[in-house]
Structure formats: structure tokens, C-alpha cells
Amino acid sequence: MPPLFLLRSEDMSLVRMVIPVESAHDTVAYLGQLGMLQFRDLNPGKSPTQRIYANQVKRCGEMGRQLRYFKSQIESAGILIAARSTIENDVDLDELEVKLSEYETELKEIASNSARLFRSHAELTEFQLVLLKAGRFFTSGRAEAAFAQREYDDFEGSMDSPLLLIEQEMQTDPTKGQLGYVTGLIPKLKTIQFERILFRATRGNMVFKSSVVERPVTDPATGEKVEKSVFVVFFSGERTQAKIVKICDAFGASRYPYPEEPSLQRQMRSEVTGRLSELKSTLDAGTSHRDTVLAGISYQLDFWILMVQREKAVYHIMNKFNMDVTRKCLVAEAWSDFICEKQVQEALMRATVDSNSQVGTIFQEIRTKDLPPTFFKTNKITGAFQGIVDAYGVARYKEANPAVYTIVTFPFLFAVMFGDWGHGIVLLLATLYLILNEGKLGSQKLGDIMGMAFGGRYVILLMSIFSIYTGFIYNEFFSVPFRIFGESAYVCRDPSCKDSRTAGLIKGPGYTYPFGFDPVWHGSRSELPFLNSVKMKMSILLGVVHMNLGLALSYYNASYFNEPLDIWYQFVPQILFLGSLFGYLSLLIIIKWCSGSQADLYHVMIYMFLSPTDDLGPNQLFSGQTEVQCFLLLIAVVAVPTMLLPKPLALKKRHEERTHGRSYGILNAGSDGESVDNEHDHHHGEEEFDFGETFVHQMIETIEFVLGAVSNTASYLRLWALSLAHAQLSAVFYDKVLILAWSYHNTMILIIGGFVFICATVGVLLIMETLSAFLHALRLHWVEFQGKFYGGDGYQFEPFSFATLEEDDQG
């Protein structure tokens, strides 16, 4: 079979490079720009801190943290990050490290000073509010407190011990009878609870006044805007004052002094206003200086971020190398695309010249038994289908790639379930919008659903095109048939057509509808039985062809890897088993369609197993059918042990011959140590053979294929089920919503009905049904198709490339 595009992985080779230490950094940097090597880790047993360049990676990580800090400060300041227009070509990593540290120290100092000034400004603002609002109720509050104190002083014979204690304290210390007060601000939501706790703590020996501030106030502790109230508490006694101060601290209230004399109040207001003005000027100057520093950083920020990311990636790759201390060089191994080796060697020579190294890099290809990575060269169209396959598993190196056939079979099977050329046109228009605007949409951050739709836009494009094609076959446009390809092949029994709905129509002589389903079937009594029969049989035919394609690819794999056992004892019995049963069923379907027979295929297939020699009677489709069925059944029975037994026995015999030959080789070698070593190296790395394990594995595969042949064929009936469901839902929305609204001859009802019809069509048929058909087509490819040949146990070729870093940074 000639080589096909994408069918096999690109040729990969393992290369070894011996790089002088002085040119190692430039070498890795140039290879990162080239993006064609996947480096292997030659130090898997070492932790990140034990690597050669662990300190350099740590330095780059610290610089990355500083750059993220700068970026967050620039975004919080509302400064736009400039494009990468100003680039320092001669900047060194050490110079950049010093510069970033200086910038960070300066910005943190500015932020610290600004925080202190901001807190002072917030405290002075609160103090100013206390001076403005406390005087309004200060006089009345003190009068009420004095009156209450006189009532307690004149009260005698009370049984309340706390009041007696107050009286005793006042007699021993007259200063405690003086009236005191506390002023400050408290959050508005805590005012009522604050007053209640004060009343309980002082047993009512206080007067509480508060006034709500009209606008939110900046809290000095948190820096957030909070609605607050100015309060004044009048009390008597030092013990009461101590209680009130503790309660204020517990509620987070800010306390401020308030002078009693009016002259001192005016003087304090003037001082507070002046200090606020000075602080405002100082804060503005600090903010302006900070913005100037951040604006200067923003011109270089993107370049610095990319530079640090590249340096960190370079040192991370260099940590995978082995150090040869005696030769002062680094040893690296990497997987490379075979056709790119010339470009790699040119990059190595350029790095040697630019680093002024006296010794060039030694580049050589080495042989290995390790499995190479898988690499397919894709574009934006084939890449989407390759992603569908890779989601199941990455192909083993040189394994047949299902994506080549998935490009056609996936949208086609989707369209079989979604066949409606009206829905297909709507889907096509939406996809064309994504494709025509892919440049603008690709640079934006899309949501999860929109991002998935944009990523698979070319898959949806083919899905919509195939849906239009199958829609023409089904003759459905939003469930409405059209006579696009000519008139119907069926005519009425008489010119009046009175019995068209009862006796039915008859087929006209010498005419067949040229393409797809005849539109006369739609709306007839026999529409559903006819469509069920056709779509069910069509699903079986498509499924058998699809599974046989998978088996053909298994032969192609076995032939490519030179595995004759897989061809004769796996592919041949599998293709015979599947063909003798379900290939035969497909042949019967085609014969029945061509001959117009009324044979019951269910009866034929069931009694092929129960009574293969019985006469078929009216279910016979061709002469000699009974003998053919017996012969096919015998082939199916023989194919099962052929899949099970010969391959494990042949593997056991092969292993015994190799072991026998190796033992004789060692004896004949005598004292020739070199021959023994060569023989040992030749068989080194071979896996030990376990016949029991191999036989059990083959038995599981045989049972899985035999049972899967039945279940997988039945699984393709989902094509019929979803196609029928899609057509019936479309008919229900059309008949029961749009036509019903039209029958009322009312403009408002028609508008409402049209809106409901559009919403139901878009939401159910174009979104939910699209997703449902997509998932079912995905299952048919992953299980029924790829399960016949695809291992999917490889790993992706992920070359070291700076372009990947830029894409991640933009994402």
C-alpha cells in the first residue's frame, strides 16, 4: 500500500549531542527557537534541587515572581501595558536581576509609605467628622447625664448594691463624680448592638448619642468604604470609662479626643483641615511617582516576561543533561524528526560561533530499542480531527492513524443521525461566521462552550456539509419535503385522488425518483414503517463497512510491523467471522432491496443458528441459500479456535527456539568472551515469555471480538434511532408549534408561535441534538472502529520550543 499523508508517524531518530559547557546555553536557546527536538531526561533519579542548574532555575523563578508583582501593580493602577515595541537587545540576565530587585524595592517602599499616609488620612477624615458632628448633641447629652447623676445621688434606701458602690466611691473619691465622655466612629450596622452592650455594662449609668454619616467613610484598618456613625457616650466614674473603652475596642470603634472648650474645638478643626490638605498633596505626589515608575516598567514588561520564561526553560532543559566533568561538556539526548536533522546541525554550528567556543558540538544518531514519540504534521483542519483521535489515546509509533479516515467517516456518521438540509444550512452559516472571524476570535478569551465550538470549527464545517447532503437524501427541510429532483414516482389510483389516504398510491410506470426519498412518503400512513426499515438496514450496512475498514487497518499494521502471526491468526479469522455472519446479513439486505422480496431477515438469521439445514420456504432469497448458510456457519465456528489457540502456541515455540539457540551459542563460544557479550547484548532487553499470561490475554481478546461483533453491529443501530428521533422532533415542532399557530390567523399568536419554534429548533435540534449526535459518532469511532486495530498507547512528540511559551503567555 503506498504511503498516505498522516497515515504513519513521521520518522523519528534518537540523537546524542556532546556540548561544551561554554556554548551549552546558546545551543539550547537556538534549539528552542528551532523547536524540533524533544529532550530526554538523563537524570531521572535526581530531585530538582540536585540538578546542575538548580540555582539558575531558582533565580528565574524569583524574577518571574517579581514580574508578576509588577504586572499586578500596573493592572491595579489602571495603566495599559505597552506592546513589545521597546526592546533592550543587550540586556543580560544578571543586569535584569539587579534592575528588577531595585524596582521591587522602590515600589514596595512607595507602597509602604502610601499605606501609612493613607491610614493617617483616613484617621484624620474620621476625626474631622467627629469634630463636625459631636458638637450638635454634646451640650444636650451632658445635661441629661448630669440630671441622671443627681437622681442617683439623691436616691436613698435602694436595695441595688451597684448604686451603693457608686455612692461609696464618690464619697471616698470626689473626682469620680465628675462627668466624662468618649467620642468616635463605629460601623452603622453595629450601632444598636453597641448601645445595648454599653447600657448593660454600665447598668444604665450612661447617655448614648449617635449620628449617621451621610456618605461611606474609608476605614483606617481595612482601607474599605464603610457606612459609619459618630457617637458620644457620657458617663461617670473611671471604672465605667474603662469598661466603655474595652467595649469600643471589642466593636472596632475608632475613638478620638474631643476638646470641651469652643476655642480649642475651632483650633483643632483648623489643624485637622490643614493636615488633610498636606496629606492629600503628599499622597498625590506619591501616586504620581509610582505611576511614573510603573509606566517605565510597562514598556519593557512583556519583553522581560518572555526573556525570563525563555531563560528558565533553557536552564530547565539543561538540567536534563549529564555533566562530563573530565571533558567539561554536557551530554544530551533528544528525539528529532528525521528530515530536520540538517536544520538542527546548522543551529548547533551557529551556537558554537556565537559563543566563541573553541570546540564544536558533537552530533550523532544512536540506535535504541526505546519506543520513539509519535508526531503527525497537521494543519488547522486536520489538527481538529487528530485531536479527536488523540483524546482516546496517542498512536503508537508508526501505528496506522485513524484520523485519516475519521476526517470523512466522522462527519458522515454524524450527518446520518442529523440529516436535515435546513438544519445543516443553519449550522453551516454559524460555522462560516467562526471561520471568517477566526483571527479576531482567536485572540479573545472565549467561554468553555464557545471555545470548544471555535476549536472544532472545521469539524463542524464538514458535519454541516454532510448534514446537507444526507438531508437531501432524506428529503427534509425542517421536516418539510420538497420536490427538488423532480415529481414523485407514485400516482393516484384515479384522477380525483379521493382514496390516496385510504387505499394509497401506486408507482407510476417507468419512473423512479432520481435522488433520495420520494417526497410522497412524508405524511403518509406508511411513512414510519418505511423509514424505520430503510434506516435500520442502512445502519447495519454502514456499520459492517466501518468495522471491516478497521479490520483492514489491523492487517495493514501487522504487515507494516512484519507480524505474520497477527495476519494469519488474528486478521484472517476475524475478517472471516465477521464476514460469514454480518457480511452475509448485509448481502441479504442488498438482495432483498434489489429483488423486492418480502423475506423476513430476522427469521433467516435466527434459524441460521438454530436450524441451519431447514428449508427457508418463503424467506429464501436465492437458490442454494441453505448450503451457503451452513458453509458460512462452519467458517464462523472454525474461526473462533483459530483466533484462540495457534498464536499463543506459535509464540511459545518461537521463544523455545530462541532460548535453545542462545544456549547452544554460549556453549560453542567456549572462552570467547566477546562472542558471549555480543550474544548477551543481542538478547538484552527482551521480555520474559509467560505462556499462561499470553494464553489468557489471547482468550480475552477472542471472547471480546466474538461478543463485540454482535454488540458492535447492534451499536450502529444508534444511527437509525437518532435519525428517527431527530426527524420526529423536527416534525413535532413544525406541526404542533408553527402550523398550529398559523391556523389561528392571529398575528400575535403567530409571532409567539414563531418565536417558540425558533427557540425550540435552536435549543433542542441545533444544540442538544448536535451534541448528542456528536457524542454518538465519537463512540462509534472510539469503540467500534478504533477498537479493531488501534492500540493508542504511544506518547506525543512535544519538542522544546519557545513558540509554545509565547502561546501559553498569550493564553
From TrEMBL:
Keywords: Hydrogen ion transport, Ion transport, Membrane, Transmembrane, Transmembrane helix, Transport
Major place of residence: membrane
Entry membrane topology: Multi-pass membrane protein
A GO molecular function held by the record: proton-transporting ATPase activity, rotational mechanism
Cellular compartments annotated: Membrane
Positions of transmembrane segments: 412-436, 457-474, 538-556, 568-591, 626-645, 748-768
Any GO BP annotation: vacuolar acidification
A GO cellular component entry from the record: vacuolar proton-transporting V-type ATPase, V0 domain
Protein's job: Essential component of the vacuolar proton pump (V-ATPase), a multimeric enzyme that catalyzes the translocation of protons across the membranes. Required for assembly and activity of the V-ATPase.
Entry similarity comment: Belongs to the V-ATPase 116 kDa subunit family.
Protein name: V-type proton ATPase subunit a
UniProt organism field: Selaginella moellendorffii (Spikemoss)
